[in-house]
Amino acid sequence: MPEALAWALGDAAATGAFGEALGRAVDPPACVLLRGGLGAGKTTLAQGVGRALGHGSLTSPTFALLMEHPGAVPVLHVDLWRLDAHELPGVGVEEALEGWPGVSLVEWGDRFPHVLPADHLDVSLADDGPGRRATVAARGPRSAAALARLAAARGA
Ligand SMILES: Nc1ncnc2c1ncn2[C@@H]1O[C@H](COP(=O)(O)OP(=O)(O)OP(=O)(O)O)[C@@H](O)[C@H]1O
Ligand SMILES: [Mg+2]
């Protein structure tokens, strides 16, 4: 399995569908880091993951910082964009991520990489013409297995 795989996502619907495929590929507990600049499509992808796991509408946690969605596969949706480093110890993100039994989705997690579980999927979204390019790398064996399932489902 190569270190990272990439997919072209022509429009927002493609980002959502890719998120759904990712949601089917992960085997909870699992953590997904979502990188990419402002408006890259991180929340759109997270919503797709949520749909695949039975969560109809994950709203953006940009202002809430952290949103827990209970269910058969509980989803923790985190957005660290607005968080200052000195606030980090007080908000419980690390504690929430550690031992989360379902799937955690962490927008802007690359700002504070030490809060992420060691084994996580590292997803980057970048502009690609009018669309986006998603690059997915596995950080650890569980994520490597998920990436292999994603590649099998989506072609790569
Ligand atoms: N593959 C794509 N091609 C074109 N537009 C897309 C694509 N994926 C998502 N978008 C659009 O990009 C915009 C921003 O999406 P989204 O809110 O998911 O980004 P974000 O990375 O979460 O932004 P933020 O950094 O503000 O949290 C939305 O209008 C969305 O529909
Ligand atoms: Mg967002």
Tally of structural domains: 1
What separation lies between the terminal Cα atoms?
11 Å
Please tell me the overall pLDDT.
94
Strand order of the largest sheet: 1-7-6-2-5-4-3
The total strand number stands at: 7
- What is the general shape? globular
By CATH, the architecture is named 3-Layer(aba) Sandwich
Low-confidence runs: none
Structural class by secondary-structure content: alpha/beta
Series of secondary-structure elements, N-terminal to C-terminal = EHEHEEHHEEEH
Number of helices: 5
Helix content: 25-40%
Written overview of the protein:
This protein has 156 residues and is an alpha/beta fold. It has a single domain, classed as P-loop containing nucleotide triphosphate hydrolases (Rossmann fold). Helix content is 31%, strand content 28%. The protein is built from five helices and seven strands, in the order E-H-E-H-E-E-H-H-E-E-E-H. A seven-stranded mixed β-sheet has the order 1-7-6-2-5-4-3. Strand 6 and strand 7 form a beta hairpin. Helix 1 (12-25) crosses helix 2 (42-52) and helix 1 packs across helix 5 (141-154). The chain is globular, with a radius of gyration of 14 Å. The model has no long low-confidence stretch (mean pLDDT 94). Residues 42-43, 60, 62, 79, 107 line the site of magnesium ion.
